[in-house]
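Much of what follows relies on a compact textual record of a protein's fold. A record is reproduced here so that you can trace the correspondence yourselves:

. . .
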Amino acid sequence: MLNDELILYTTENFSKLVEEKHEGDIKIILHFKCSDDREDYISVYQKIAILNRNSPVFSRKIYHYKLGMAIPEDFELTELLPINATDVDYTTNMIYFTIDFNQDFRLGYKGVTDGKGVFSTRLSSLKTIRAPYRKEFSITATDDGFPKLNSTATLIVTVMDNVDNLSGENTSPKCNGAIGKSFNILLLLIIHASLHLN
């Protein structure tokens, strides 16, 4: 105590309290022994509030899917190009993904990579999407901290006309065998080229 001021400092143990990932109270009891054999106690409480300071971060600013054939209903585009987000706040236990209201695509929770805090979503088609098609959407990642913070990325889906099909047969993603494999290779080549051009 100096000049009637009591100054308290944190120690290394304080970091352990913060790492417990929950709010709480610090309670300090001061025990005074007076010269006339009297004793007294003062209790000091300090509320600890874990505040959310960082928004989720998408792995890309733009997710552009360029496909050379119709997209069948319930096809998962994120098998070709994953949509992920991370959050450096250790209090974040979940990231929720949302997309602009539309009648073509939906998002669903895919999971989290343990230890890395990488949250993934699933982008699936609600119906068959035929060429020519090009639409742009906003996808939002919102964490569960306090206060809740979010960030936005751009999603573009393009279905192109007149992509040569060597087999001349139906090569939708749901086909089996060599035809399905040819289609998947074609899709990967188109997406690979798109990623390098953007």
